Amino acid sequence: MKTVLHKADTRGNANHGWLKSRHTFSFANYHDPERMNFGVLRVLNDDMVSESQGFGTHPHRDMEIISIPLGGDLKHKDNMGNETIIREGDIQVMSAGTGVMHSEYNNNPDQPVKFLQIWVIPNKQNVTPRYDQITLQTADRKNKLQQVLSPNQDDAGVWIYQNAWFNMTNLEKGKELQYTLNDPQNNGVYAFILKGDVTINGKELNERDGLGIWDIQTLNLKADSDTEILLMEVPMSQ
């Protein structure tokens, strides 16, 4: 088993007034050559956008972009004709492919919006851009794993052009779960603790800590308090 631990307070910190963001991996003005990625997981940004503020229209290409709202309403608009709102419980994905233009704004005039922005390097280049958004029942992840992303169009959750699986769980204190990798020979898992405290394969983690694990077949999770966890299984090489 190999591991890399990123404590919450070691993440990059960006404060633009209207945007407060913590970067697990190098992004924009935050650059750490030791923290460029975890396998094909390239970006994990923990964003908070002020009331009625947001990101103006900007481009992306050849990247799988996943947004997971954690509170508030985020308005999305793109040049593919999509104009929608994503909320807590939703999962949004864009395959940027040959190129997309989009904007994201806080749709709330009276509260910030919080969300995770995740980029995964795809296994196919120059694909036709696509957009998808689904609403999941968060009750279905209580003390069990809920798959929210996979490589397969017919599986639960959204899908991307990569051999990756994301799962979320809300574990009550004292509860335990085991996660078995779909592709243990090629993949690792990056665990991001959204809330609470948990022990994963003997490593104690707290809120907003991240732990990457590879060269292993299973993860053992034990909740040391009520906790919410995002598990991202991704290939370790591009």
From TrEMBL:
**Where is Fe cation bound in this sequence?**
58, 60, 102, 104
Domain Quercetin 2,3-dioxygenase C-terminal cupin positions: 148-234
Instruction: Name all Pirin N-terminal domain ranges.
Output: 12-120
The UniProt note on the cofactor reads as follows: Binds 1 Fe cation per subunit.
Q: Keywords, A to Z? A: Iron, Metal-binding
Which InterPro entries does UniProt cross-reference here?
Answer: Pirin, Pirin_N_dom, Quercetinase_C, RmlC-like_jellyroll, RmlC_Cupin_sf
Cofactor dependence: Fe cation
One GO term in the molecular function aspect is: metal ion binding
> What family is this?
Belongs to the pirin family.
Full protein name: Pirin family protein
